[in-house]
């Protein structure tokens, strides 16, 4: 679909990381871009640089979200806002479960509920969901994050079923490690996160994810790019554990 078929985009998690770069790209493509996150200062900077429309709102506040979107016909929705908290099911605390469910799943469902009926009525739209390799591979660490991203993975396919017969495309982007603030927020220490997760690694950059989104959205209108897995060359998912026990 040429970008010119779409007029308006909404990008969540736009204040930094992947979302901020996606806002820049879509604005360059000539779309009116609505940029949503909590940090009003960062959104204002982004608006000055890109001309985007800032929406400083907590995505877990469904009534505020509904109010912000009133009257906006979104043609391209990029569900990008996400949080990761440490802990598997044996160690995670209550907040880790509640926040990750609220941001990574509940808000995505509400946004699609708010935006997709308009797409169906206009017979035009594209939903891009940023999941993670955690959605489709099991590895040690953040069990709740895996569960929430797995929900986004399933939802992405299910939306294609719900939109059957309409010119609505759904793309799930499934990244490996990207150099952003996500691990700094998880540890509560950006420098420590840089040392642990990024120094010495050839991680992906937000621009690599934006490239994939541009490709999927810019593809011809009869083409739905459904699932895109993007990893750093030196990051490999998978592996099999088999504990040897005789008792
Ligand atoms: N980085 C990676 O290695 C990686 C890998 C796979 C998938 N992903 C996914 O990629 C997406 C983008 O993450 P990122 O790496 O760019 O992380 P990031 O740099 O930490 O950015 C996260 C964004 O989400 C927003 N956000 C968080 N909680 C919010 C809330 N309650 N309401 C509104 N906005 C909220 C943040 O803005 P405010 O704080 O201003 O609200 C920020 O703009 C996420 O879905 C993440 O799970 C990342």
TrEMBL record:
A Pfam family matched in the record: adh_short
Carries keyword Cell inner membrane?
no
> Cross-referenced InterPro entries, in alphabetical order?
NAD(P)-bd_dom_sf, SDR_fam
- What keywords are annotated for this sequence in UniProt? Oxidoreductase
Keyword Oxidoreductase attributed? yes
The family annotation for this protein states: Belongs to the short-chain dehydrogenases/reductases (SDR) family.
Name of the protein in question = NADP-dependent 3-hydroxy acid dehydrogenase YdfG
Q: Can you name the source organism?
A: Streptomyces iranensis
